[in-house]
């Protein structure tokens, strides 16, 4: 049976560390504040936002919500982004995605000051990551790297395969694995023989958004398997992209859903907000 990589426990430790950093800054008179932009009332987004704000409260980060109706104009959101960029009391902020309707997030993401970009999703942050400049890292990929590192999973020199190439997860994750000196392969929907490629992986990270798509036939004996996928089941539970029961017989370690990458994503948002506050204060 594969060892369980407990994201909930590691995330709790990171929240404690962040809480310590927040009180250090507070003692120097630097308050830490996260602003959240939410457009529309998509139930999943509303839940994510309220969870993130609860996390903030737990570690002593003040949070402010800027909620808009679904028909808000891009112009209005852009004006808010610019105001938050210039507001010295705001350590960092993010725009909850997806935006309602068919609104393109790119012009808004492009306007975010990279030193306040706690989601790490602006083209500037992505470009800085790609060329190896310091930047705030996207929360989910960074959470995966932190979870592996803190569970003692070696990456240097190892064969890593990522399934998925989104700007939110797969692409930045591939860059972070490279930075850890893994040998990285990225698969996507046009990959010809997925199982043939994923079976090479010593570390397999799955972020395809396809419920239960990865089974024992995709996994090398002894591999570490990270499941980023999240799907709501008929009975209201959560499940991932990996068929856990099946894969746990072949993998040496794996992340559960829930309790794996999801809590790490939220912890890294807090970490980034503290980091942004240090940057604003000239301490980082
Ligand atoms: N735990 C967490 O904190 C988070 C979880 N998620 C979850 O992770 C999953 C992925 O999210 P996200 O990256 O935003 O999703 P996207 O839909 O943006 O990207 C999915 C990627 O997977 C690839 N893909 C789809 N089907 C296959 C297939 N059959 N074989 C190989 N590759 C495939 C796509 O390829 P192509 O590019 O060719 O279309 C694409 O690159 C979702 O379930 C999402 O809910 C997301 C963010 C955070
Ligand atoms: N700009 C942007 N940034 C994101 O970070 C982002 C996004 N857009 N779009 C949607 C995805 C999804 N996502 C999750 C975060 C936490 C959990 C999480 O906490 N999951 C818990 C369970 C929570 C529950 O019970 O509902 C767990 O897996 O244990 C899940 C999913 C962030 N996303």
TrEMBL record:
Superkingdom field: Bacteria
Positions bound to NADP(+): 164-166, 230
Domain Tetrahydrofolate dehydrogenase/cyclohydrolase NAD(P)-binding: 138-280
Catalytic activity: (6R)-5,10-methylene-5,6,7,8-tetrahydrofolate + NADP(+) = (6R)-5,10-methenyltetrahydrofolate + NADPH; (6R)-5,10-methenyltetrahydrofolate + H2O = (6R)-10-formyltetrahydrofolate + H(+)
Sorted UniProt keywords: Amino-acid biosynthesis, Histidine biosynthesis, Hydrolase, Methionine biosynthesis, Multifunctional enzyme, NADP, One-carbon metabolism, Oxidoreductase, Purine biosynthesis
Gene Ontology biological-process entries: L-histidine biosynthetic process; methionine biosynthetic process; purine nucleotide biosynthetic process; tetrahydrofolate interconversion
Pathway per the UniProt entry: One-carbon metabolism; tetrahydrofolate interconversion
EC number: 1.5.1.5, 3.5.4.9
UniProt similarity note: Belongs to the tetrahydrofolate dehydrogenase/cyclohydrolase family.
Protein's job: Catalyzes the oxidation of 5,10-methylenetetrahydrofolate to 5,10-methenyltetrahydrofolate and then the hydrolysis of 5,10-methenyltetrahydrofolate to 10-formyltetrahydrofolate.
Identification of the protein by name: Bifunctional protein FolD
Provenance organism: Rubrobacter xylanophilus
Gene that encodes it: folD_1
């Amino acid at each position: 049976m594969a060892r369980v990589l407990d994201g909930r426990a590691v995330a709790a430790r990171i929240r404690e560390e962040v809480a310590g950093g927040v009180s250090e800054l507070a003692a120097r008179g630097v308050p830490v504040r996260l602003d959240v932009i939410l457009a529309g009332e998509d139930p999943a987004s509303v839940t994510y936002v309220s969870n993130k704000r609860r996390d903030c409260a737990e570690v002593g980060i003040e949070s402010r919500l800027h909620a808009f109706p679904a028909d808000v104009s891009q112009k209005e959101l852009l004006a808010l982004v610019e105001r938050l960029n210039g507001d010295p009391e705001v350590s960092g902020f993010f725009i909850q995605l997806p935006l309602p309707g068919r609104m393109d997030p790119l012009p808004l993401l492009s306007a975010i000051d990279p030193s306040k970009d706690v989601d790490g999703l602006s083209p500037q942050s992505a470009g800085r990551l790609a060329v190896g400049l310091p930047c705030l890292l996207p929360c989910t990929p960074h959470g995966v790297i932190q979870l592996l590192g803190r569970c003692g999973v070696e990456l240097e020199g190892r064969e890593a395969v990522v399934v998925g190439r989104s700007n939110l997860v797969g692409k930045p994750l591939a860059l972070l694995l490279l930075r850890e000196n893994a040998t990285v392969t990225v698969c996507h929907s046009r990959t010809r023989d997925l199982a043939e490629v994923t079976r090479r992986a010593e570390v397999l990270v799955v972020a395809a958004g396809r419920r239960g798509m990865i089974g024992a036939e995709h996994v090398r004996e002894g591999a570490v398997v990270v499941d980023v996928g999240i799907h709501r089941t008929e009975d209201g539970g959560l499940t991932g992209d990996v068929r856990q029961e099946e894969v746990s017989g072949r993998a040496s370690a794996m992340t559960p859903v829930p309790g794996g990458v999801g809590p790490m994503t939220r912890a890294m948002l807090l970490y980034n907000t503290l980091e942004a506050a240090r940057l604003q204060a000239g301490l980082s």
